[in-house]
Specification:
Two copies of one chain form a homodimer. With about 650 residues, chain A is of the alpha/beta class. An eight-stranded parallel sheet of chain A has the order 20-19-18-13-12-11-22-21. An eight-stranded antiparallel sheet of chain A has the order 28-27-30-25-24-23-26-29. In chain A, helix 6 runs parallel beside helix 7, helix 9 runs parallel beside helix 10 and helix 13 runs parallel beside helix 14. In chain A, a hairpin with a 6-residue loop joins strand 24 and strand 25. At the A-B interface, strand 1, helix 1, helix 2, helix 10 and helix 11 of A face strand 1, helix 1, helix 2, helix 10 and helix 11 of B.
């Protein structure tokens, strides 16, 4: 049969279907496409989807919108990779029917037209059952036997049941399926929404100079949970190499009691599947994971694909590393800098396939120990294709595993890692400060198409990044950066010490002074000046308001003063609407007039609305034109919920 | 070897590479893509192209722009379909070299690093010839023998010849090629630029009631050529059916002397490969084609895939048509309208493959008779896939054949026909009238991506379309619509009678009154009030100015008055700059201030420039702020060339 139907411009779709889109369980995916054919024939289209490792399709009808654009939707109910495609075909009966209804009563040879319709009904008769069969036979009888009078036949054809049966049973004789089949990675909710807390187990102790243990870390869980966090991410917990071990503040030589950098993975006691003996045993780790789970949190492990010179792989698989001409192994470097305590794996080794498999084994080991979230260190230094393979391998068996890419790298490769399958990614949030910065960056993340596959996780700080505004802006900056991270992105995180407003950097850098990357820290977690209550409030507001658990519903509103960022998020049904105003200047009181189009928050245009301040509990009646004043020393941000609209 | 390199976001590219782009011989195609890999290694990339039916690639280097975006270009020199793709690979020597140049002179084990470089040079030594080999051996000697002192080695490495040889001879060990391979249809110049003149041969005679002949038509060629046209498009020239023949003004019944509609193709004397006996013989046709060619013009034939009930195919291949239940053949219809004089072909016939081949045979027949341009009637009623096949079949043998799609249809299918291979397309130009209309439509045609595959042919009128503005606007409208068509689009056309400002429509419609679709017309081609001199001038200006022979160089400028459209076109090197101002209102004098940024026309910002009025020959010195007054009864358009810039 001649091919007639064209299906093109399908949305959502990443790189022409070469990369998957991402959603979470329960999401409804609206799919649109241009679908058309030559001539005037009526076409039908369905959206089809199946689990990736399952042949069987489900389908739902698509409906034409305007200008040959069609739309359908399906809801993903299972945490598994899912494939979707479109199918369209010509409906000869509906085409005939439409033509017939437009005919003139006095048209010659109407009889012949009617016979054509009967012939079409007869083609489906064999597939019709019971009531349908009887109904169709009745229709045929009436069509054939009513003296072929025009009006009664038109009335008969207008019966929607007839069209319904014919559409349902009609053969899809010239069906065309869109290619390539497209993929959606359906993750669990935590892939989209979560508040993360990063910490080093070795700093959770209480005795100066003594490494903290999993038992110590376990004691800190209630405090972290009470701040409202969902995920506790641990810096690497494995044995640390002694060869070329770094001392405090990245000193070339470590002292005898220096712990070394946890990212120099592996030592005499084992490598990526071992626990640093000073932190405890594997049983202690299991116990810690269990305690976290019981308190309502999850543990995320660091996955750093690199070794210390003392890692067992160095002895067992010397061919997995870069060899220099003198036979020695090359350390990590970025000339003129060298990282003598770290050996990268050589993904171009002859036995590279074995390295891939070993990495998978490492992940499976921790998955067996209850870890379902991995924060992957520097993924942009390993092949994108490796991650694509690894993540799919793991998720085909454990679809609930989440991968966060620590890719502070160039934009294209950052995105490519997400396209390859990373569930979430670190971002440039830390370096975005002005209103213009946020407008541009959030537009890219939420509206440019990137939102289909890239899920940001906004970290206010990390063990590597203490941004200038935090170094200089004091407590007000810690509060506003928290509000920005937590309310602009459904996933966000802080690195421990943030709650204490720690802001001492190595001068002229974004590195923490006396970083716990190289030494053990003992902190008073209730040190005066902390913002734990503020964090708790922010996380409570996040968890109580569905609007804040989405990414793409972000909308910026106009504020005259460029130091005040005004934005809102709302659920599609307008049942939950949050407005946020943030003073970006941590040093001065700022005030502004602003404009919130009432229509944008579901009120009647020009209407007014009641808001409740979720920090103070005060209620105000606002019109579209608003006035805001924010004192960094008081409340540097307003967080409001729209309660009523007038 | 592990795959490292990612190539994505290639431009130009239509639908992810599923459809070809279009260019003309001599065009340089700039191709951009995101190309990157993990880590810090230096990569190389080339743009590769080959003729579609030829394995052998040529290649040119790509260069990085910014942010992992790369650019390369190639010039298409032959009228043939061409494929292009990108290849990229890691350059280990350049990577090693860059690292080395960043090292510290006192770095330990520099010796070992140098050995690594030597090893890399040795890998290409076998492929090096004569001078290169000697050069490389010298380099190795110096690297190895100079006491491994840092500075002299750096000096050696900075020698560009070394990098040049290594880049040229280095193995592309991990080369990645982008998929799918992409296609460019390289047409001859006429595909992009041409002035068309449509006429009915039967109306070229001089005796009322007597059909014009090819001999008559031949006599008209000098007049048409002197107006500056390049292509003469003929309404169908085949025998016309007598069954259900239509009379004047589409009357249901024809009189005995009515010629019938030329689109009711086929009669006793033959079908699509026959000539209507009243017009002449095949020899007369050949003679006419030859005369046109000698005068510098080409003939375009109408290709209407449909038959009159008297077409030989109806008898010879009754199975090629739609059969009704009573065995009769279904005529064309769009209920409640029927076109009894036309039978469509049934592309869903069992023998559809044979129909496709027969259509190709028809085209080949006329190609043998010197026809290289086909204006395809109503292509949107036949499968897009059929056209894709047919056009490629023809162009694989005759790449100089041009297909114009008469697709006055919905936008998506209009574009799909171009994607399928139509060289040019009719457009909505006739229905675009306001400044906003033109701004939006021209943006779509020249800047939205559509310009990569869709070439508009702006017809001021056709035998089917006499737009309201022409019906009402008189001579001024005929002049301005000509200027708009001819200067906005490099391909444009008129239907004969336009030069006489014929504007009588069937009331309330866009149909010509007493249309020559159904009757023979005899005209005085020099009737007072004609605009032949104006047309001649417009075509002369088009042919003398390269800027007007491009599509995508269009730029609109601001004019305060919405009735005045102000635009410009210039060559990339600024050597030819044309400015056009058109009064869209045929009834009133309109005046406006306007603004032409001097930078946009290659002058210094804020500078002034001298323009010559190509209609009057007057010269003016203009600054960016201009004032224009256009009298529809005088000169309703200014056409200016920028001569000097100050």
């Amino acid at each position: 049969m001649t091919k007639h139907i064209v299906i093109e411009s399908i949305w959502p779709c990443v790189d022409g279907g070469r990369s998957p889109i991402k959603r979470v369980v329960g999401d409804t995916i609206a799919v649109e496409a241009d679908i058309f054919r030559d001539g005037r024939e009526i076409i039908r289209a369905v959206l089809k989807w199946r689990k990736k490792w399952d042949e069987k399709y489900q389908e739902s009808p698509m409906v034409p919108l305007i200008n040959d654009r069609w739309r359908g939707e399906f809801t993903v109910t299972e945490n598994t990779r899912t494939m979707y495609t479109l199918e369209a075909w010509t409906d000869p009966f509906a085409s005939w029917r439409e033509d017939f209804l437009k005919r003139m009563p006095q048209e010659p040879r109407l009889e012949c037209e009617i016979k054509e319709g009967i012939r079409l009904i007869q083609t489906v008769l064999a597939r019709a059952k019971a009531a349908d069969k009887k109904f169709l036979n009745d229709v045929i009888k009436k069509l054939d036997g009513d003296g072929h009078r025009f009006e009664p036949i038109c009335a008969l054809l207008k019966d929607e049941r007839l069209l319904g049966i014919m559409t349902r049973l009609g053969e899809r004789a010239d069906a065309v399926t869109s290619t390539p089949e497209m993929e959606v990675i359906v993750d669990r909710e935590r892939a989209l929404v979560g508040a993360w807390y990063e910490m080093f187990v070795h700093s959770q102790g209480t005795v100066p100079g003594k490494m903290g243990t999993f038992a110590d870390a376990k004691k800190r869980l209630p405090d972290i949970r009470s701040m409202g966090f969902d995920v506790v991410y641990l810096a690497p917990i494995h044995p640390i190499g002694v060869t070329s071990r770094k001392g405090p503040n990245n000193a070339l030589k470590a002292g005898p009691n220096d712990p070394g950098c946890p990212w120099a993975v592996g030592g005499k006691k084992g490598g990526h599947t071992a626990i640093h003996p000073a932190l405890g045993t594997l049983e202690d780790f299991d116990d810690f994971v269990k305690a976290a789970k019981e308190s309502g949190m999850e543990i995320a492990l660091d996955f750093a694909v690199q070794c210390s010179p003392d890692h067992p792989w160095v002895k067992d698989h010397p061919d997995w590393f870069y060899k220099r001409p003198d036979g020695s192994i090359k350390c990590a470097e970025n000339p003129p800098n060298k990282y003598e305590d770290i050996y990268p794996l050589n993904f171009d080794a002859a036995d590279w396939r074995r390295i891939w498999v070993e990495m998978k084994e490492v992940l499976l080991f921790w998955i067996q120990h209850g870890v379902k979230i991995f924060r992957v260190d520097n993924p942009h230094n390993k092949p994108v294709y490796f991650w694509q393979w690894l993540i799919e391998e793991i998720q085909s068996e454990y679809p609930d595993v989440i991968f966060l890419a620590e890719a502070f790298t160039r934009p294209k490769i950052m995105k490519a890692l997400s396209k390859a399958g990373f569930t979430q990614s670190y971002t440039y949030f830390t370096w975005r400060q002005s209103k213009y910065d946020f407008a541009e960056y959030m537009k890219e993340l939420t509206q440019s198409g990137v939102q289909e596959y890239f899920r940001p996780n906004f970290f206010t700080n990390t063990h590597d990044v203490l941004s200038p505004i935090l170094q200089q802006g004091g407590r007000p900056a810690f509060k506003t950066r928290l509000v920005l991270a937590a309310f602009l992105s459904p996933s966000y995180g802080i690195y421990s010490g943030y709650e204490l407003c720690e802001n001492q950097a190595v001068p002229g850098t974004e590195e923490y002074l006396n970083s716990e990357k190289y030494e053990i820290k003992i902190r008073d977690w209730n040190k005066p000046g902390h913002i734990k209550d503020y964090i708790k409030m922010v996380n409570r507001i996040r968890s109580e308001n569905r609007a804040l658990q989405q990414l793409n519903n972000l909308k910026f509103f106009h504020a005259e003063n460029d130091q005040i960022l005004l934005f809102g998020k709302k659920t599609a049904d307008n049942s939950n609407i949050i407005l946020v105003a943030v003073n970006l200047d941590p040093f001065h009181v700022q005030e502004t007039s602003g404009f919130i189009p009432a229509g944008d928050i579901g009120a009647r245009p020009g209407g007014s609305f009641e808001v409740v301040d979720l920090i103070t509990g005060q209620r105000f009646t606002w019109t579209e034109k608003i006035f805001i004043k924010l004192d960094p020393q008081g409340e540097p941000a307003h967080i409001l919920r729209v309660e009523k609209k007038f």
